[in-house]
Amino acid sequence: MRKILIVVDMQKDFIDGSLGTKEAQEIVPAVVKKIQSYSVSDIYVTKDTHGENYLETSEGKHLPVVHCIKGTEGWELDERVEVVTKSAVVVEKPTFGSIELMELLKTENEKEPLEIELVGLCTDICVVSNALLLKAAMPENRICVDASCCAGVTPQSHEAALTTMGMCQIEVV
Question: How distant is the alpha carbon of residue 92 from its chain centre?
Answer without folding.
Answer: 11
